[in-house]
Amino acid sequence: MPDRFSDSATYPRAGNVRRPAWLKKSLPVGADYRKTDALLDSLGLTTVCREAGCPNRWECYSRGTATFLILGDRCTRNCRFCGVNHGTPGPPDPSEPEQVADAAFRMHLRHVVVTSVTRDDLADGGAHLFAATIRAIREKLPMSRIEVLIPDFKGDPVALEMVLSARPDILNHNMETVPRLYPLVRPEASYRRSLTLLARADQADLSPVTKSGLMLGLGETDDEVITVLSDLRKSGCRVLTFGQYLQPTPRHYPVNRFIPPESFDAWRGRAIKMGFSAVAAGPFVRSSYRADALVRSLIA
Questions:
Q1: Cut 0.85: pTM above it
Q2: What is the SS3 assignment for 283?
Q3: Which of 46, 78, 105, 179 is packed most tightly, with the most Cβ within 10 A?
Q4: SS3 92
Q5: Distance between CA atoms of residues 248 and 286, nearest Å
């Protein structure tokens, strides 16, 4: 395993350089893709796959999976890495939990992933709708695992407890990047606040498996990443994802470097040695990419 993982001068810098071969992906749109897309449209549901421009959308839809995006399609924050629209959102849809549960049932999902935009305009950050969605899915699909990827709820422990009380199997909250880059990449977030959320979730009664994710290629150093991994382990986080940051539009934060697949393999090995139970790492890995396979061995 190399001593250095992501900041070697030999790794191709971004800028005007074309994406390397390992970041080129075919986008097949077949009957299975169209079936999933049509079902979601018919139910009026939004997915983060579509709203964030995920490069895995075609693959996941074709496999009959998707990550549901609740609480609207507009985020009250404006993180510079994220392709989801920001602005003033409308009121939450009280029928959304049942719609998500119905879609999961009709898609025969054994592992359901739900995330949301950040809703700083709501008193509880939308925690009540997360809880209602978890309960609705549990009623429709009692044998399925439920994973939620939640915002930080501005550090409100009551909002977090509201989600935990609905008993998701996996609670994911992404750190995204290293502390030094927070003011540049996600200025309305707090590194310590996010760590505290994960620690509270891990220490809760009937605690779920906790999970987090990092983007590489934003300008972080190896030592900074290792510090984040150490902090995550201290918080009790067990599951981790690493992926390549890709700039959604020219208005977003620029890519600093393209990280080759072998370096992602090295990061996965390092994280496993540090005590993480399950790690997915690769250029196209995202928080919920093949989430079912990642945690299958951890949850009966």
A1: yes
A2: coil
A3: 46
A4: coil
A5: 14
Contact 125, 151 (CB under 8 A): yes
The total number of structural domains in the chain stands at 1
First to last CA, the chain: 32
Six token digits for residue 117: 């935009």
Q: b/e for 33-60, b at 16 or more Cβ within 10 A?
A: beebbebbeeeebbbbbbbbebbbbbbb
Describe the strand order of the beta sheet including 145-149 as a list of residue ranges.
46-47, 67-70, 111-116, 145-149, 170-172, 209-216, 239-244, 278-281
Task: Let me know if residue 16 belongs to a domain.
Answer: no
Q: Report CA torsion sign: 119, 205, 101, 107.
A: positive
SS3 239: strand
Q: What is the pLDDT of residues 175-191, one digit of tens each?
A: 999 999 999 999 999 99
Please give the structure tokens belonging to residue 259. 């990280």
The two three-digit tokens of residue 98, written as one number: 């049942």
| H or E segment to which residue 211 belongs | strand 209-216
